[in-house]
């Protein structure tokens, strides 16, 4: 798997949504010992812990966390990000098996190609492929001390 400085090396990355990314990130660092890896404006942060990582994202801004059932307006607070070798092939497989696609495979300036979907249980998933190693500073990311 291609490495990318803009993406944690972990294969499975939980995505946790909070109303205030800054406050939540600070609390997770202080209370649980996470370390800031990368901050992306005020809507997303990557926190490291040993060999693992979590992504903290803004609750109201993450459309992949919104269900389209009776609780349509109630955002999800949790999703899973999984790094894969070929996001387009993975997307085709997910569609074949009935995943509800929330966003089609898209290449982003931070060096990742990603798509998001919902499984039959309503859980949010983002699958991500590193397509180029981009220094976070080159696209506006702010690198933490860790």
UniProtKB/TrEMBL annotation:
Record-given protein name: Glyoxalase
Database matches in PROSITE patterns: VOC
InterPro entries for the chain: Glyas_Bleomycin-R_OHBP_Dase, Glyas_Fos-R_dOase_dom, VOC_core
SUPFAM superfamilies: Glyoxalase/Bleomycin resistance protein/Dihydroxybiphenyl dioxygenase
Source domain of life: Bacteria
Source organism per UniProt: Mesorhizobium helmanticense
All residue ranges annotated as the VOC domain in the record: 7-130
């Amino acid at each position: 798997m291609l490495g990318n400085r803009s993406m944690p090396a972990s294969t499975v990355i939980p995505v946790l949504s909070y109303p205030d990314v800054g406050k939540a990130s600070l609390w997770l660092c202080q209370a649980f010992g996470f370390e800031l890896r990368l901050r992306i404006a005020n809507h997303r942060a990557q926190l490291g812990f040993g060999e693992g990582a979590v992504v903290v994202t803004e609750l109201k801004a993450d459309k992949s966390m919104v269900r389209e059932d009776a609780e349509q307006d109630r955002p999800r607070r949790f999703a899973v990000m999984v790094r894969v070798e070929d996001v387009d092939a993975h997307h085709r497989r997910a569609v074949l098996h009935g995943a509800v696609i929330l966003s089609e495979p898209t290449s982003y300036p931070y060096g990742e190609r990603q798509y998001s979907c919902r499984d039959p249980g309503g859980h949010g998933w983002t699958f991500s492929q590193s397509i180029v190693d981009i220094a976070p500073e080159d696209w506006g990311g702010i690198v933490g001390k860790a």
